[in-house]
Amino acid sequence: MELYIKNMVCGRCILVIEQELQKAGLKPLQVELGIVTLKEIPAEEQLIKFREHIANVGFELLDDKKKKQIEQIKRAIIQKVQKEIEEHFSISEYITNAIHKDYAAASRLFSEVEAMTIEQFFILQKIEKVKELLTYNELTLSEISYQLGYNNVGHLSTQFKKITGLTPTNFKINHPSHRKSIDSLHNRKV
């Protein structure tokens, strides 16, 4: 049986969910971002206890099919941004392959539920990754641009300034600690 969990965005989230599963007496086969695969169907009391426990730490057990699809889309985007984005990357092809659904329908649903497009969410994730990489100070802006699939540094800089109000250089100098947690990005407009 699979459980879908909203707001799982990192390795620490997986650890927290594993702890909460243990507290509820549930035995997972696998815990990934957004999905828990259980060995057996849990008792209703266990699910209620698990739902309450994870709500206390900022997660939500998803029951609705639409919410599950939204979470799959977000998880796929977050995972892609954490890796290198190749030149000529197509978000529509990537999402279609990741969730095995028609992109136009997925895009409409995402926009309806999240009040932003998939593309806007993708851009917000990329900008947060840029902030992270700028904070580490290990890569040049050109290398960051290449890693995140931007055509050039100018495109990255323009998009970064539009979202943050700062150039990447100004951010690096003045605001290295102003990053947002990935799960809080759903409320921002691009």
Description:
This protein is 58% helix and 9% strand. By secondary structure, it is α+β, with helices and mostly antiparallel strands. It folds into two domains: 2-63, 2-Layer Sandwich (Alpha-Beta Plaits); 65-190, Homeodomain-like (Arc Repressor Mutant, subunit A, Orthogonal Bundle), CATH 1.10.10. It has a four-stranded antiparallel beta sheet, sandwiched between helices. A hairpin with a 2-residue loop joins strand 2 (28-32) and strand 3. The mean pLDDT is 89.
**CATH superfamily placement of the largest domain:** Homeodomain-like
Estimate the mean pLDDT confidence: 89
Largest sheet: 4 strands, antiparallel
Question: Structural class, judged by helices and strands?
Answer: alpha+beta
Count of DSSP strands: 4
Helix content bin: 55-70%
**What is the distance, rounded to the nearest whole angstrom, between the alpha carbons of the first and last residues?**
36 Å
Q: What's the architecture of the largest domain in CATH terms?
A: Orthogonal Bundle
- DSSP strand (E) fraction? 5-15%
Number of domains: 2
CATH topology of the largest domain: Arc Repressor Mutant, subunit A
The largest sheet has its strands arranged as: 2-3-1-4
Instruction: Give the helices and strands as they follow along the chain.
Output: EHEEHEHHHHHHH
Cα gyration radius (Å): 18 Å
Please state the overall shape, judged from the principal axes of the Cα atoms.
globular
User: What is the level 1 CATH name of the largest domain?
Assistant: Mainly Alpha
- Low-pLDDT sequence parts: none
Number of helices: 9
